[in-house]
Amino acid sequence: MKANKITVVMAALFLGAALLNAKVVDSTVATVNGTPILNSEYQKIIDTTMEVYKKQNPALLENQDNVTAIKEEVLNQMIIEQLLLQAAKEQNIKVKDSEVNENVIEIKKRFEKDENGKTLSEKEAQKAFNAELKKEGLTYKQFENRIKEQLAVKKMIDAVAREKAKAPTKEQTEQLYDDIRVLMKGNEAEIKKLSRERLTLAAPLAAKLTQLTAEQIKLSPIFVKVDKNATQANWKLKEKEAKDIKKKITSGKVTFLEAIEKYSDDKASLASGGEMILIKGLMPKEFDEKVFNIKVGDISDPIKTDDGYYIIKVNEKKAQKDFTYKDIEPELAQFLAATEMQKANIDYLASLKDKAEIKVMVKFEYSQPANAQGQAQAAKSEEKASDDKAKAEPAAKAEEKK
Asked: pTM for this one?
């Protein structure tokens, strides 16, 4: 998923924020304890959100009910943000200037490379950062204030979670481990015995561990794209182009990294030095078989896919591995603790809503009202699935470095 770098950071806690101190100069879409959520701020976040969906999953937006649900979810998240910001102010949560500065520095690091992974000079990075602020309609002071507000909210909800969440027991971690093993083995009879709650808890960990322990390779890819409406003759020309690129590499005219920079139609790997981790089982079987049969150090002939040709250099291989309860006990305990904290935060938010006076001035109309409730969750699930897929590779890289 690709979005502007400041918005991604601002959305790390919540989808977006209306300025608490904004003057009422336009229409109001909702009020939270008398504080207005302005239409201008609402529309700005909707535009950013829709831009993300257009890049990530444009088909989702073809259904007008999905579009309506996304807009409703944006407003819901803005209301939640207002509730939490107000609570943090009431509790007089303090944030140090040094904490704000640390977060600003972390955000600015996102501008050290361009979209193609090219490292920018300090001056170029600052220019890109300033351009993003201008695009978001923020002064630097407003940007810092937002960071400060969100840090205050984070401190508050962390404190709530620590106070209310219970530490997991060894019995709970062992049960979670057993459930994960059941799911990874794929025994349907055993899986059906799991309660819905246990299944929901164990499923994401089982999926992640399946990836991390699977056979994997570190590779460098070059992609030669072929148009979806290309003729057979066009495919032949592109295949020849791919073969010529390989010849330039094997003859020493260019290095593989230089070839990615010059010829590849997908330069995403440049962000990590021209390398990627491929986990067995994530790609189509035919592609997996060809790539995982390449020897370390070898460069493949063009491999045909539905979208074009890949030239692959395999740099390293890791065999499938197993793990024991002791290997992952700390992570299981941490996961259960985080789950408890999340429940505590949900309960706290519900209590804030119960006490709040919330008025919504926007009417969301669906063509199928009976299904409206599930639309927003479906849209969020689509985005989460894509995020999980995007996170799989860096998670695998982290494991690979151990």
From this structure: 0.59
